[in-house]
C-alpha cells in the first residue's frame, strides 16, 4: 500500500512544498490552502506547550537538550472514507483514511507545526485522537470531550506544535470505528537526529480484524455468546475439566462465579502487521540493524513479539527512549508502542512475529532475503492450567485477607498481616519475587508458608525472588526487634538443608544457626493469626534452623550481582532503600556453592553489618530455584515489600508519605503471581521476557519536581464479566456523577487496583506519566500501561495542563461498556463541552449506558420457549415466553435493577400472564388463566445458581432457582430450573454456529420436545 497522504511542508522562510500522487481534489484543496497559508502560519503556533513536557527526564526532548527548533508547518489531509476489504476471503466494509488501513503514517520532526485536516466523508460523525501526543486540550480529538465532533461531510483542522519525538499513533475515538479501520501511525523525529531519520526503520502497526461490526461484537459479549471461546478453543467445560483431571479447578472457578479464565474476550481470525498478515522487507542485508517502530493499534488484542534473528533490543517504549534491553519476547499491550532494534544476522529472511496473546493467529514481517527463518511457535494456551493459576491467585488473595481496595492497603499494619496465610499457593512458584521486602523492625511471627505445598520437589521455584528483603536480620542477636519466629518455611523443600559443597566459614554458620531468634519472641508478643489454631511460633525451632542452614549465607559479602532474568529485578537498579550493592558477578565457585543449595543467582544477598537502624540486609534478590521443576507457581511477586513501617501494628504505613519507593511497595506488596498467558507465554523456556521492571528511562531521573503539592488518587478497575459491564470505582463513565479533579501544578499519584480477572491497557490522554517500577528514580515515562489481573500499579505525573482529559481502558469493548473516567483540571472549563452539551452527554452515555438487545429462542416440537433481553449497565429488560403453538401460553415481562457493584444482587418488578391448559405435556380439561404483577429479589450464588424470591400482587410467594449455560462439553450447554410452584425444566443445547444450536427440553407443563435454538 502506498503511503502517500497529501502532505506539504512550509518552511518559515522558504515555502518548500513536498507532496506526491495527489488527486485532483487534493490539488484543488491545495491551491485553496495556499491562500490560507498566511492565516495558518499565524494560528498554528498559538500559545501552547509552556507547561508540556514528557515530564522530568526520560528521553529529553530536543528543547531540553538545549535545541529549540522552529520547524516548518507540516500539513496533511486525511480523508476518512468507506472502503472494502478482503482479509478472510469475503468482502467486507471497513473504514479507512485516504483509502488505507492502517491510515497513512504521518511524519513530523520535533519543532514542526502540525496542521492536519480531517475530512469526514462518512455517513455520521467521526473523531481522530492523537494518542500519546502532548498538545493543547482542544486538539486531543476526543469526540465532544475535547474537540467538536466532526460531522458528516465537514472538515476539522488540528493544529499543534510537535514538542516530543518517538513513535505514537492516531485513531478514531467514536463508537467502534477504531475496530473497523480508523488507526494509523505517527512518527516524530528528534530535532537533533539520533540516527538518520527514516533510514533502516520500519513502522509496523499491528491490528486485529473480524468480519463483524464492532457493535455486533459488543452485543455478543453482552449476551455472553461463547462463540468466540469456541472458535479459539478456550471453553472450559465440565467435561474437559473432568477428563483432564481439573475437576477441582472447575469447581473452584465456578464457586468464585468466574465464567472462565481467558486472556482475551474476542476471537480475531486475522491479525495485520502494517495492513498485511505477512509481508517481506527484502531490501535489508546481512549485518543491517533495523529500527522497528511497533504500534499495537488493535481493538482488543495484546501480542507476543518475537524475532527469529536473535535478541530484540528494546530501545523505546510509548515513544520515549529507555535503556536498551535485550529480550526474546515482548508482550505489547493494546495502544502501547515499542522501539525495537533487530539485526539481520545472516543471509535469509528473518521473521518478526506478533502472536495474539490467546495464541490463535499471528502476523509477520520478514527482513532480509533468502530462505525464511521462522520464529519459534508459541504453544497453544492450556486453559485448564490458566484456570488453575487463576484459582490460585483468587485463593491467595482471599487467604491473605486481601481487599481489593487500596484504601485498606494504606491502613494496613501488622495486624492486618496476621492472616497472611499462603495456603492457597499450591502449584508452580516461578518468579516468586520478594524484591525489596524490607522487614526492618518487623515482627513476622506466624507467617505461615506451610500450605505452600512443595513436597515431592515437583515445583518449579524459578525466580523466587526475595530481592531486597532488607532487615530480615538473621545475624545479630542484639536486634531485638527482628522477631521471625514462626516464619515457617519448613515445608518448602527447596529451602531445606542440602549438602553444602563448600563449608561455610564460621561466621556464616553462626549466622545460620542463630537465624531463628527465638528469645526475641519473649520481648515482643507474637502476632496471632486469628484463624490459625496452632500458632507457628510454637513449632520446634530445629526445623527452622535446618531450613536456614540449608541456605548457605556464606557468600553474602560481595554477592551482589546476578544477571536479571525474566521478571526479576534489574540488579543494577535496586530501589531498596537500605541496600548497598556492588556490581560484581559471583564467580563460578560461588555460583556452584549456591547451586548446591538449589538456589543460584542469589544476587545482592548482602548480610554485611551496617550501622544500627540500617540493619543487616538479607537480600534474596534473584533467588532462583530452577532445580525443582514441575508445577508452576509463576511469579508470586512481593517486590519491594517494605515492612519497615509496620511493626507490631504501632506504626502505620501511611499514604501521606510522599515517597515513590513507598508507592512501589504499595504496588507490589499485594501483587499476585504472574500467570501463563497473561505474563508469560506458554512454553517460555529460558527466554527473556520483557517486563515493566526492565524498563528504565535512558536519561536519568524521572522523579517529579520537588516542592509541589501532591495529590493521591485511588482508582479501582471493576467489572462484571457475565453481564460485560466494565467500570471504574464501580461506575461506568455514564454513571459517574463527578470528574476526577486535579489542579495545575500538582504532582499527581494515581494508584490503580485491578479488581478484575482481566488485564487492562490504561491510557491517560495528554500526559506522560512515570510507571512506578523497581527502577526507582529512573521509572519509565509512558502514556499507556498494562495492569494485570488483580494487580496494583502506581503512576505519577505532574499536572501541567488544563481542562478535561480522558482516562480509559484501551480495550475497545471495555471502554465502550464504561471503563473510563475524566481527569479534570480545577478552575478550567472546556468551551467545547459548553458549546456541544448534547454531544457531550451523548459521549458520556455511549460509555456504559447503551442498551444491547439479544435473544434466545427455542423452537421445539411441543412449543416455543425463549427470551428477549435489553441489557444495560444497571438495568435489564426481559421478555420471556412459553407457548405450545395452541392455546396455552405464558408471558413474563420484568425490569431488573442491579443493586451491588459486583452485580450479583438485583431487584425486579414486572407482570406475568398465564393461560395454560397443559400439564405434563397433556391437555387438561380446564384452562387456567392468571394475570399478576410481581416483584422480587434475585441473587447470583456460586456456580452461577440464580435464586429469586418473588411475590405477586395477590400475596403469593414463589422461590425459584436456576442455572443457565452450564458448559457440559465445548459445545453443549445445559439449563436447569425449578420453583416452589413445582414447575421445573431442563434444556440441553448443542451449539453448531454462532447463532444456531440444536436443542431439546423437558418442561413440567409442556413436556418433552426437541428442535432448534436461535441464539441472537
Ligand atoms: Cu480493559
From TrEMBL:
Keywords: Copper, Metal-binding, Oxidoreductase
GO molecular function annotations of the record: copper ion binding; oxidoreductase activity
Residues covered by region (Disordered): 475-554
Superkingdom, taxonomy of origin: Bacteria
SUPFAM superfamilies assigned: Cupredoxins
Compositional bias per record (Basic and acidic residues), positions renumbered to this chain: 543-554
Pfam families attached to this UniProt entry: Cu-oxidase, Cu-oxidase_2, Cu-oxidase_3
InterPro entries (alphabetical): Cu-oxidase-like_N, Cu-oxidase_2nd, Cu-oxidase_C, Cu-oxidase_fam, Cu_oxidase_Cu_BS, Cupredoxin, CuRO_3_CopA
Protein's UniProt keywords contain Oxidoreductase: yes
Biased composition (Basic residues): 511-526
Keyword Transferase (UniProt): no
Domain Plastocyanin-like: 80-190, 283-357, 715-824
Entry-linked PANTHER family: FI03373P-RELATED, MULTI-COPPER OXIDASE
Protein name as catalogued: Multicopper oxidase
Organism, scientific name: Cnuella takakiae
Amino acid at each position: 500500500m502506498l503511503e502517500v497522504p497529501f502532505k506539504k511542508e512550509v518552511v518559515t522562510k522558504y515555502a518548500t512544498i513536498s507532496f506526491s500522487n495527489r488527486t485532483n481534489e487534493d490539488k484543488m484543496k491545495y491551491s485553496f490552502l495556499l491562500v490560507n497559508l498566511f492565516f495558518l502560519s499565524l494560528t498554528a503556533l498559538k500559545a501552547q506547550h509552556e507547561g508540556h513536557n514528557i515530564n522530568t527526564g526520560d528521553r529529553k526532548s530536543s528543547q531540553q537538550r538545549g535545541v529549540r527548533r522552529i520547524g516548518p508547518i507540516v500539513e496533511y489531509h486525511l480523508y476518512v472514507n468507506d472502503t472494502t476489504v478482503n482479509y478472510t476471503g469475503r468482502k467486507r466494509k471497513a473504514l479507512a483514511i485516504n483509502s488505507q488501513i492502517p491510515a497513512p503514517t504521518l511524519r513530523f520532526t520535533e519543532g514542526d507545526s502540525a496542521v492536519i485536516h480531517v475530512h469526514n466523508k462518512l455517513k455520521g460523525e467521526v473523531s481522530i485522537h492523537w494518542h500519546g501526543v502532548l498538545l493543547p486540550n482542544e486538539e486531543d480529538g476526543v469526540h465532544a470531550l475535547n474537540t467538536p465532533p466532526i460531522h458528516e461531510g465537514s472538515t476539522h483542522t488540528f493544529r499543534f506544535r510537535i514538542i516530543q519525538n518517538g513513535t505514537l499513533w492516531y485513531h478514531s475515538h467514536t463508537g467502534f470505528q477504531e475496530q473497523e479501520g480508523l488507526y494509523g501511525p505517527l512518527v516524530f523525529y528528534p530535532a537533533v537526529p539520533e540516527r538518520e531519520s527514516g533510514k533502516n526503520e520500519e513502522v509496523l502497526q499491528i491490528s486485529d480484524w473480524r468480519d463483524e461490526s464492532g457493535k455486533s461484537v459488543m452485543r455478543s459479549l453482552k449476551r455472553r455468546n461463547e462463540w468466540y471461546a469456541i472458535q479459539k478453543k478456550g471453553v472450559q467445560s465440565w467435561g474437559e475439566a473432568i477428563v483432564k483431571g481439573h475437576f477441582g479447578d472447575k469447581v473452584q472457578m465456578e464457586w468464585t462465579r468466574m465464567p472462565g479464565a481467558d486472556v482475551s474476550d474476542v476471537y480475531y481470525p486475522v491479525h495485520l502487521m502494517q495492513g498485511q498478515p505477512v509481508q517481506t522487507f527484502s531490501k535489508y542485508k546481512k549485518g543491517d540493524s533495523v529500527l522497528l517502530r511497533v504500534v499495537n493499534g488493535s481493538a482488543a488484542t495484546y501480542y507476543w513479539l518475537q524475532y527469529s534473528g536473535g535478541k530484540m533490543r528494546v530501545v523505546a517504549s510509548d515513544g520515549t527512549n529507555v535503556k536498551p534491553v535485550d529480550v526474546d519476547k515482548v508482550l505489547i499491550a493494546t495502544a502501547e508502542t515499542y522501539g525495537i532494534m533487530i539485526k539481520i544476522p545472516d543471509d535469509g529472511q528473518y521473521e518478526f512475529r506478533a502472536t495474539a496473546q490467546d495464541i490463535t493467529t499471528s502476523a509477520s514481517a520478514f527482513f532480509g532475503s533468502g530462505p525464511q527463518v521462522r520464529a519459534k511457535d508459541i504453544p497453544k494456551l492450556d486453559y485448564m492450567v490458566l484456570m488453575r493459576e487463576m484459582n490460585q491467585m483468587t485463593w491467595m488473595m482471599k487467604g491473605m485477607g486481601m481487599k481489593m481496595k487500596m484504601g485498606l492497603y494504606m491502613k494496613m499494619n501488622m495486624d492486618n498481616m496476621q492472616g497472611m496465610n499462603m495456603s492457597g499457593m499450591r502449584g508452580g512458584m516461578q518468579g516468586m519475587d520478594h524484591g525489596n521486602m524490607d522487614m526492618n523492625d518487623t515482627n513476622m511471627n506466624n507467617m505461615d508458608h506451610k500450605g505452600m505445598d512443595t513436597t515431592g520437589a515437583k515445583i518449579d521455584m524459578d525466580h523466587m525472588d526475595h530481592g531486597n528483603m532488607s532487615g530480615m536480620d538473621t545475624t545479630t542477636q542484639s536486634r531485638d526487634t527482628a522477631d521471625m519466629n514462626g516464619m515457617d518455611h519448613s515445608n518448602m523443600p527447596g529451602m531445606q538443608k542440602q549438602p553444602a559443597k563448600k563449608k561455610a566459614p564460621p561466621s556464616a554458620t553462626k549466622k545460620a544457626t542463630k537465624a531463628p531468634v527465638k528469645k526475641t519472641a519473649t520481648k515482643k508478643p507474637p502476632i496471632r493469626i486469628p484463624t490459625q489454631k496452632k500458632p507457628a511460633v510454637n513449632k520446634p525451632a530445629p526445623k527452622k534452623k535446618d531450613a536456614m542452614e540449608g541456605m548457605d549465607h556464606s557468600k553474602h559479602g560481595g554477592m551482589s550481582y546476578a544477571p536479571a532474568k525474566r521478571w526479576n529485578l534489574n540488579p543494577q537498579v535496586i530501589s531498596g532503600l537500605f541496600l548497598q550493592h556492588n556490581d560484581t558477578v559471583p564467580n563460578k565457585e560461588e555460583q556452584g556453592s549456591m547451586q548446591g543449595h538449589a538456589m543460584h543467582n542469589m544476587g545482592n544477598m548482602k548480610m554485611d553489618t551496617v550501622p544500627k537502624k540500617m540493619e543487616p540486609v538479607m537480600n534474596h534478590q534473584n533467588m532462583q530455584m530452577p532445580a525443582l521443576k514441575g508445577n508452576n507457581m509463576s511469579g508470586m511477586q512481593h517486590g519491594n515489600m517494605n515492612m519497615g513501617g509496620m511493626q507490631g501494628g504501632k506504626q502505620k504505613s501511611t499514604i501521606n508519605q510522599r515517597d515513590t519507593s513507598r508507592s512501589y511497595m504499595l504496588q507490589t506488596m499485594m501483587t499476585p503471581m504472574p500467570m501463563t498467558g497473561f505474563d508469560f507465554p506458554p512454553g517460555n523456556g529460558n527466554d527473556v521476557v520483557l517486563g515493566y521492571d526492565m524498563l528504565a528511562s535512558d536519561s536519568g531521573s524521572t522523579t517529579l519536581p520537588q516542592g509541589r503539592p501532591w495529590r493521591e488518587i485511588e482508582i479501582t478497575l471493576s467489572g462484571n464479566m457475565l453481564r460485560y459491564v466494565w467500570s471504574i470505582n464501580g461506575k461506568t463513565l455514564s454513571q459517574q456523577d463527578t470528574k476526577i479533579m486535579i489542579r495545575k501544578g500538582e504532582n499527581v499519584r494515581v494508584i490503580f487496583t485491578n479488581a478484575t480477572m482481566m488485564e487492562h491497557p490504561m491510557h491517560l490522554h495528554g500526559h506522560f506519566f512515570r510507571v512506578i517500577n523497581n527502577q526507582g528514580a529512573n521509572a519509565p515515562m509512558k502514556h499507556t500501561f498494562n495492569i494485570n489481573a488483580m494487580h496494583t500499579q502506581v503512576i505519577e505525573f505532574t499536572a501541567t495542563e488544563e481542562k478535561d482529559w480522558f482516562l480509559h481502558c484501551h480495550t475497545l469493548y471495555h471502554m465502550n461498556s464504561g471503563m473510563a473516567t475524566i481527569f479534570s483540571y480545577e478552575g478550567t472549563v472546556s468551551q467545547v463541552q459548553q458549546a456541544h452539551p448534547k454531544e457531550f452527554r451523548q459521549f458520556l452515555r455511549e460509555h456504559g449506558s447503551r442498551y444491547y438487545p439479544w435473544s434466545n429462542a427455542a423452537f421445539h416440537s411441543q412449543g416455543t420457549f425463549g427470551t428477549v433481553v435489553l441489557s444495560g449497565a444497571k438495568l435489564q429488560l426481559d421478555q420471556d415466553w412459553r407457548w405450545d403453538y395452541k392455546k396455552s401460553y405464558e408471558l413474563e415481562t420484568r425490569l431488573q435493577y442491579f443493586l451491588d457493584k459486583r452485580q450479583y444482587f438485583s431487584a425486579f418488578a414486572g407482570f406475568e400472564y398465564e393461560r395454560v391448559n397443559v400439564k405434563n405435556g397433556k391437555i387438561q380439561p380446564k384452562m387456567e388463566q392468571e394475570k399478576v404483577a410481581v416483584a422480587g429479589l434475585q441473587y447470583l450464588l456460586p456456580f452461577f445458581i440464580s435464586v429469586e424470591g418473588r411475590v405477586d400482587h395477590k400475596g403469593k410467594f414463589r422461590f425459584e432457582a436456576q442455572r443457565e449455560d452450564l458448559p457440559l462439553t465445548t459445545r453443549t450447554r445445559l439449563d436447569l430450573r425449578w420453583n416452589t410452584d413445582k414447575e421445573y425444566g431442563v434444556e440441553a443445547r448443542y451449539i453448531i454456529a454462532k447463532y444456531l444450536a440444536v436443542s431439546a427440553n423437558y418442561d413440567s407443563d409442556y413436556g418433552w420436545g426437541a428442535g432448534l435454538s436461535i441464539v441472537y
